[in-house]
Amino acid sequence: LTYIRWIDAPGAPYDVYSGSPAAALARLPDVARLCIAELLQPRQWGLLWPAFFLAAAALVAGAPLREKVLAAAVVAALAVLMVPFLFTTWPLELQISQAYSRLASQVAPAAVVALVLGYRTARNRIDATRVLR
After folding, report:
1. Residue 110 and residue 107: Cα distance in Å, rounded?
2. DSSP assignment of 56-117, as one string?
3. pLDDT-based confidence at 9, cuts 50/70/90?
4. Distance between CA 33 and CA 90 in Å, rounded?
5. Are 35 and 100 in contact (CB under 8 A)?
6. Residue 8 region by backbone torsions, left for phi larger than 0, else alpha for psi between -120 and 50, else beta
7. Which residues does 73 contact at the CB level (< 8 Å), separation at least 6?
8. pLDDT tens, 41-62?
9. Nearest 5°: CA angle at 51, between 46 and 53?
10. pTM for this structure?
């Protein structure tokens, strides 16, 4: 933001200084909806994010604390990556469609690890129930 002000760029992409917290909170439902829609685009991600959320549920339900923390950290990172859009001066649809996937791709490796751990956790629970029968 300082650099943008220093070069006196016309039409800064973010307006943190004059934007009110109430306006940012009013945008939250739209930002969340658009960002989730980006994560669920099969052409962009395949089934990565839906599979991750299922795996995260499995981890929360029955994995060791370290694995639960990994799943929670990925979800928290995805949420934190939404924050800049609360203060954008661009149309929400345009900026989110151009930027959120690039931001989420930085978290994707951790999501893949959580997905594999979630699969293992679910598989172990299924195997344990078969042994009990």
Report:
1. 6
2. HHHHHHHS-HHHHHHHHHHHHHHHHTTGGGGGBSS-HHHHHHHHHHHHHTTTHHHHHHHHHH
3. low
4. 17
5. yes
6. left
7. 110
8. 999 999 999 999 999 999 999 8
9. 125
10. 0.82
* Residues in Cβ contact with 93 at an 8 Å cutoff, skipping those fewer than 6 apart: 34
41 by DSSP, 3-state: which? coil
Q: Give me the phi and psi of 14, to 5 degrees please.
A: -130, 145
Token digits of residue 50: 């839906």
Task: Report the candidate in 40, 27, 33 with the shortest Cα–Cα distance to residue 90.
Answer: 27
- Token digits for 9? 């760029």
Amino acid at 101: S
Mean pLDDT over residues 81-105, rounded?
Answer: 92
Number of neighbouring beta carbons within 10 Å of residue 125? 14
